[in-house]
Amino acid sequence: MKKLVLMTLVMSLFLGLSAQKQKMQSDLTEKDGVFCTKDGEKFTGVAYTYHKNGKREKEIEYKKGLKFKETSFYENSDVRSISTFKKGKLHGEFISYYEGKKINAQGKYKKGKKSGKWITYDEKGKVKEEKKF
Q: Using one digit for the tens of pLDDT, what is the confidence trace for 65-78?
């Protein structure tokens, strides 16, 4: 019985903490690239925006108030793009898709600027352009 009570308490605590880490993007305030909750705490967790049809538009992960990863979606729920961030600036892998899941462009960012080799594709998946930054 003690194990059941302890397990229930642990699950309640876990579920309560998880619920606090998900917000609507509109619930956050932004100043100088830092996102905070309404009580002024730097937000760590996932925030969402939605299309008019009710489907997810963006899923944005934050760590200590700074963007860490952003995934955007088309209205049909296909992924539009995935971006990573470091210290709130685009940094790392970036990939975008055409509606229908074929890759549109891929490359890397470094400190907010395109870096290295970027490849764009046509809607059939053939390389359209390769560019170095």
A: 999 999 999 999 99
